[in-house]
Design goal:
Elements lengths: L4 H16 L8 H16 L1 H20 L17 E9 L5 E4 L5 E13 L6 E2 L3 E7 L16 E9 L12 H6 L3 E7 L5 E5 L6 H20 L2 H12 L7 H9 L10 H17 L4 H18 L4 H18 L6 H15 L7 H16 L4 H10 L5 H35 L1 E3 L2 H28 L5 H22 L5 E3 L5 H22 L18 H18 L13 E5 L7 E5 L5 E6 L9 H12 L5 E5 L5 H4 L2 H7 L2 E6 L7 H13 L2 E4 L5 E5 L2 E7 L2 H4 L9 E6 L2 E5 L5 H9 L8 E3 L11 H7 L3 E4 L12 H9 L3 E4 H4 L2 E5 L4 E5 L6
Parallel strand pairs: 5-7, 13-14, 14-15, 15-16, 20-21, 21-22, 22-23
Antiparallel strand pairs: 1-3, 1-6, 2-3, 3-4, 3-5, 6-7, 6-8, 9-10, 11-12, 11-24, 12-13, 17-18, 18-19, 19-20, 24-25
C-alpha cells in the first residue's frame, strides 16, 4: 500500500518549526517525538512504524532548521539603526516596484538591497543583511521602473531605521512581515539624488533582466490599452501586480471575497501550464520535452509574478505533476503539495508564519479533500443528460462545468474562512456567487491577456480585436464585483478567532470530509486512496471524533483578542493615529463611543480606514453608538466620513462651530446620507455610556465656539465608580482658564493631554487642578511642530504623572474596574 511519506514529513517539519518558536516547554516536544518514533520503529517493526519515525525526525529537523534564522548576525546592518548612512550594496530583488500617488503618477521605488559596505567612519565598515529600500522619485518620473535588475550595485544615502511594528491592535506589522523574508532594516532615501548606480548587473542579472523584459510589455499594455481600473485589474490577474489598484477598487474586491483573482496563485498557474503544454504538444513536441519546457516556463512565470508563496507553491506542484507525466507516472496531488511545502520551508522556515503561505497550503489541502465529494453531482448530471448529440453534450458539459466551479468556490471559501477571519476580521457573504461568476471569466482573461500583450508588443494593430474582447470581460468582472459589493450584508465583520479554534476548525472540516467521502463510497476507500494505517473505524467512533472536535470549535471560536474588554471593565484605547487624536471608549456593557477619528494625508488616505476601522474590527465592534468630534480640525475629523460610511453609527456630536472646510462638508453629507443624528454638544449634559459609566460634557460654551477651533474643543470628563478620565481635545490656555473659572470638578486619574502636548496647553494651574496619575499624549512621530513640548512633558512628570506617548508607545489602553486604573501600551519600552 502506497504511503504519502512526503506529505507526512512536510507536516512534521512544519510542526517542528511552529513548536520551536513556541514558549517553553514546547521546544522539547520534537525531541520527545523523535525518541518515541525511533523506539517504535525498533521495537514494533520498521514497516509499520517507519512513518511515525519519519514524522518525528522531520519534526526535530524543523525545530533545528528554524533556530539560526531567529537570531541576527553581529554585523547585520540593522544593528546600526537608527542613523543617517551612506550604504553600498547589491540589488537582491528580481525587479524593483513602483508605488503610485492617487493620480497614477510614480512616487516611490522599492527594492531589496544586500548590504556590503557602510561609508561612515575611517575607511567605512563591512556590513551584511538585507535592507528594504524606498527611494523618492522626481515628480513626473518615467512610468517604467529604472533598469535595476538583481546584481546591480548601488550607493544609497538615507535614514536607516528598524521597520515599524504594528502601532495599534489590528494594525499591520511591517517589521514582522519583512523579518519573515530575512529583512531586518529599512532605509528611506528622501532625495531623488540620494542614490546612484555603481556597477551594472553581471551575468547573475541575466535572469532578472529576462523577467523584466517579459513583465514590462504586459504591464505597459495593461496601462496603455485599458482604462485605469480595467488596466489595474488586468495587471493583477496576469502578474499579481496590484500597485495601480485604487483603495476603493481594492475594497470592492475584498468585500466580495474575489481579491484572490488579483494575486497570481493556483488557478493562474494551472491555466498557464495547460496553455503552455497544449501549445507545445500542438507543435509536435513529445510528452517529455513538452513537460520539461512547461516546467521551465512555469519557473519564469513564478518569477514574473513576484515569487509569492501561492504562485511558487502552485508552480512546484504543477512541476512535480509534469515530471511524473514525463516519466508516465500518475501524479499524486497530496504528495506534490507536501513536496512543495517542504521545499519552501527548507529554503525559508519563516515562510510558515506568512499569511500567504498559510492561505495557499490550507486552501489547497481543503480542496483536495472536498472536491471529490462533488463527484456524485457531476455523475448525476451525466445520468440526467445522457445524450451524445451536440445539444446534450453542450448542456451536460456546461452544467458539469458550473457544478465544478461551484464546488471549487465552496471548498475554497470553507478553506479560507478561518484565516480570513483571523487576519482581516471579515467573512464575505457575497464571495460564493461572485466567485462562481468571475472564475470562468478568469479562465478566458488569462490566455487572452497574455496573447494581447504579446501582439501589442510585436504588432499593436493585431491586438485590437483581443483588447475589445478583454474590455468586455474586464467590464463584466468590475460590474459583478461592484454589484455584489454594494449589496447589503455583503461582508460580515467578526473578531479574530483564537488560534486553537482555527486548528480545531480544520481538524473538524477535514475529518468531516474523510467521513463523508467514505459514506458516499459505502465505507470503501477510494481507488488509489492511500493511508498510513487503515483500521476499520466504526461509524459511532467517527461521529464521536467529529463531536469531540466540533464542541471546542463552537466554544473557542468567539474567543477574541485577549486585550478586549471583559464584563465589568471600562476600557479607553488612545490609538496611534499619527499627528492627530482618536480614542475608542468601550463601556462595561459593550457600548462604544468614538472620540475623534484621526486625520487624512496628502494622498487622501485617512486614519479611519487605516487605523480606527481595523481596530474596531479586530475587537469585534460592528457598531459605533456615539461619535464625538471635539473640533473640526482635519487631524481630528479626517476619518469620520469613512467610518460613518462603513460602521452603523447611532449619534454624532460636534462642538457646534461653523466651518466651511471640505472635510466638514463631506462629513455632513455622509451623516445625512446614513441618517445619523447630528447635533452640537451642550456643556453640562451627561451621556450614559452603560454599566455605570457616565460622560459629562464640560465645554465649549457659546462664547468659546466663537474662538479659534482649539479653544472651542469639546472637553469631557468620564466617571466610572471612583475613577475619572478627562479628555480635552486641543484645548489651549483660554479654554483651560475658563474651566478653572467655572469651578467645575476637573480631578482625574487619567488626562488626555491637550493639543498633542503643545506648550500652549496643560498650564501649571490647570495641571494642579487635574492631578492625573496617568497622562496620555496623542502625537505623531517626527512631527514638524516639535510636539510634545519638553516643558510640558517635564511638567507632567514633575507632577507625578506616568506619561505615555502614542509616537513612542503606540496605542495605549487604559482600564478601569471602577476602583483603580492601569495603562497597557502596545510597546511599553517605546519605539
Amino acid at each position: 500500500m502506497k504511503q504519502r511519506l512526503l506529505l507526512l514529513v512536510a507536516i512534521g517539519f512544519a510542526a517542528g518549526i511552529a513548536l520551536a518558536v513556541a514558549p517553553a516547554p514546547l521546544p522539547l516536544v520534537p525531541l520527545i517525538l523523535t525518541l518515541f518514533g525511533i523506539s517504535a520503529a525498533l521495537l514494533g517493526g520498521a514497516a509499520r512504524w517507519a512513518p511515525f519515525a519519519a514524522i518525528a525526525l522531520s519534526t526535530l529537523l524543523g525545530s533545528l532548521v528554524i533556530r539560526p534564522s531567529l537570531t541576527v548576525s553581529p554585523d547585520d546592518i540593522s544593528r546600526l539603526a537608527p542613523r543617517l548612512i551612506t550604504l553600498t550594496g547589491v540589488v537582491d530583488s528580481t525587479e524593483p516596484s513602483l508605488h503610485y500617488t492617487s493620480d497614477d503618477s510614480p512616487d516611490r521605488l522599492s527594492l531589496t538591497l544586500r548590504a556590503e559596505h557602510m561609508e561612515e567612519g575611517p575607511g567605512g565598515s563591512t556590513v551584511s543583511g538585507l535592507v528594504a529600500v524606498r527611494i523618492r522619485l522626481q515628480p513626473g518620473a518615467d512610468l517604467a521602473p529604472p533598469d535595476l535588475p538583481a546584481g546591480t550595485r548601488l550607493r544609497v544615502r538615507g535614514c536607516l531605521e528598524l521597520p515599524p511594528q504594528a502601532r495599534n491592535p489590528g494594525g499591520f506589522d511591517y517589521r514582522a512581515f519583512l523579518a519573515r523574508h530575512s529583512i531586518n532594516s529599512a532605509l528611506e532615501v528622501d532625495s531623488p539624488a540620494g542614490w546612484q548606480t555603481l556597477e551594472a548587473a553581471g551575468p547573475a542579472g541575466l535572469l532578472s533582466r529576462l523577467v523584466i523584459a517579459l513583465r514590462t510589455p504586459i504591464l505597459n499594455h495593461a496601462r496603455l490599452s485599458f482604462s485605469l481600473d480595467q488596466g489595474a485589474v488586468l495587471a493583477g490577474m496576469l502578474l499579481g501586480d496590484r500597485q495601480r489598484l485604487s483603495p476603493a477598487l481594492r475594497e470592492v474586491f475584498e468585500r466580495t471575497g474575489t481579491a484572490h483573482v488579483l494575486a497570481t496563485a493556483g488557478l493562474h498557474v494551472g491555466v498557464v501550464a495547460l496553455l503552455a503544454l497544449t501549445l507545445l504538444r500542438r507543435c509536435r513536441l513529445g510528452r517529455r520535452p513538452a513537460s520539461l519546457l512547461t516546467i521551465a516556463l512555469l519557473a519564469i512565470f513564478a518569477l514574473m509574478a513576484g515569487e509569492r508563496a501561492a504562485v511558487v507553491r502552485a508552480a512546484l506542484m504543477a512541476s512535480i505533476a509534469l515530471l511524473g507525466l514525463s516519466v508516465e507516472r500518475e501524479p499524486d496531488a497530496p504528495s506534490a503539495l507536501g513536496g512543495a511545502a517542504l521545499l519552501l520551508l527548507a529554503i525559508n522556515p519563516k515562510e510558515l508564519f506568512d499569511p500567504g503561505f498559510q492561505f495557499s497550503f490550507l486552501i489547497v489541502g481543503t480542496l483536495l479533500l472536498l472536491l471529490p465529494l462533488g463527484a456524485p453531482l457531476s455523475e448525476a448530471i451525466g445520468r440526467r443528460i445522457p445524450g451524445r448529440d451536440p445539444r446534450s453534450k453542450f448542456l451536460r458539459r456546461t452544467l458539469q462545468g458550473a457544478a465544478g466551479t461551484l464546488a471549487v468556490t465552496v471548498a475554497a471559501q470553507l478553506g479560507a474562512m478561518p484565516l480570513t477571519a483571523y487576519y482581516f476580521n471579515t467573512i464575505s457573504l457575497a464571495g460564493m456567487p461572485a466567485n462562481v461568476l468571475i472564475l470562468p471569466l478568469l479562465g478566458l482573461i488569462l490566455p487572452l491577456g497574455f496573447a494581447a500583450s504579446a501582439l501589442g508588443a510585436l504588432a499593436p494593430i493585431c491586438a485590437v480585436p483581443l483588447d475589445l474582447l478583454l474590455r468586455a470581460l474586464l467590464g463584466t468582472v468590475l460590474a459583478v464585483t461592484r454589484t455584489f459589493s454594494a449589496m447589503p450584508g455583503a461582508v460580515h465583520f467578526l473578531p479574530s478567532p483564537a488560534p486553537a479554534s482555527i486548528v480545531l476548525y480544520y481538524a473538524l472540516l477535514w475529518l468531516a470530509a474523510i467521513w463523508l467521502g467514505r459514506l458516499l463510497r459505502g465505507g470503501e476507500p477510494a481507488p488509489g486512496e492511500t493511508a498510513i494505517v487503515r483500521p476499520r473505524i466504526p461509524p459511532v467512533a467517527w461521529r464521536a471524533a467529529l463531536a469531540t472536535v466540533a464542541l471546542p470549535v463552537l466554544l473557542l471560536w468567539p474567543a477574541t483578542d485577549e486585550r478586549a474588554p471583559s464584563s465589568g471593565a471600562l476600557a479607553i484605547t488612545f490609538l496611534d493615529v499619527g499627528q492627530g487624536d482618536g480614542a475608542v471608549i468601550q463601556s462595561p456593557t459593550g457600548r462604544v463611543m468614538l472620540v475623534d477619528t484621526g486625520g487624512v494625508d496628502d494622498q487622501g488616505s485617512n486614519e479611519g480606514e487605516r487605523t480606527v476601522g481595523p481596530f474596531l474590527r479586530a475587537r469585534g465592534i460592528r457598531r459605533i453608538d456615539l461619535m464625538l468630534l471635539t473640533h473640526p480640525h482635519a487631524d481630528h475629523i479626517g476619518g469620520a466620513a469613512w467610518l460613518l460610511a462603513h460602521f452603523p453609527t447611532g449619534r454624532l456630536l460636534e462642538n457646534g462651530a461653523q466651518t466651511g472646510s471640505p472635510l466638514a462638508a463631506e462629513l455632513e453629507t455622509e451623516a445625512r446620507r446614513d441618517g445619523v443624528e447630528c447635533r452640537s454638544a451642550p456643556p453640562g449634559s451627561q451621556l450614559d455610556l452603560g454599566g455605570g459609566a457616565v460622560a459629562e460634557l464640560l465645554a465649549p460654551t457659546d462664547a468659546e465656539r466663537e474662538l479659534p477651533p482649539n479653544d472651542g474643543s469639546v472637553v469631557m470628563r468620564i466617571t466610572y465608580g471612583r475613577t475619572h478620565f478627562l479628555l480635552v481635545g486641543d484645548a489651549e490656555a483660554q479654554e483651560e482658564s475658563d474651566l478653572l473659572a467655572s469651578h467645575t470638578p476637573l480631578a482625574a486619574d487619567v488626562l488626555k493631554v491637550g493639543h498633542h502636548g503643545s506648550s500652549t496647553s496643560t498650564n501649571p494651574d490647570f495641571l494642579a487642578a487635574v492631578r492625573p496619575r496617568i497622562a496620555i499624549i496623542s502625537v505623531g512621530a517626527h512631527n514638524v511642530y516639535g510636539h510634545p513640548s519638553p516643558v510640558v512633558t517635564r511638567r507632567l512628570r514633575d507632577s507625578g504623572a506616568q506619561v505615555y506617548r502614542t509616537d513612542q508607545n503606540g496605542a495605549i489602553t487604559v482600564w478601569s474596574d471602577g476602583r483603580t486604573v492601569h495603562a497597557e501600551p502596545m510597546h511599553p519600552a517605546g519605539r
